Amino acid sequence: MPVLILSARILKVRSSEILDISAPAISLTMGLTKIRCQIDGCCPGRYLYTDDRNLLVCFPSPMAEMGFSVFLTALLLFLIRKGKLHGRIYPFWMLVYGIGRFGLSYLREDRAPFLLGLPAGAFWSLVSILLGASWLVIAHFVTLKKRALPKSESL
Asked: How many domains does one find in the chain?
């Protein structure tokens, strides 16, 4: 994110515009990385049952995460195209991605405690949710404050 903010300064545009544009790209990239997870088997889903050949059948966690990321990318692009949440796409992405990833982290087999007794995916999802929600609330109040100022006092 610091690179994006620095890029905004160099290009002389608002950092929120750069962050808005980057959110769908980051979301899609995160989804595409799950293809490698599926191939390597590094992020196995929860065991569902044993089939008739005595093989374990797992929830396709990487594919579910990829599907969620692709859906979220499409949603972000739709919101940008419609002019919704201007300057707030990135924190919206952080919030929604965090919520989705939190739920999906419990569909993985690897749920070893990381911090506060939570698996790593769930912990970092909560961080994303808190940052995204805080950012959106602060942005909302800043917008309300700007609207309340008379034209001569606004920045």
From this structure: 1
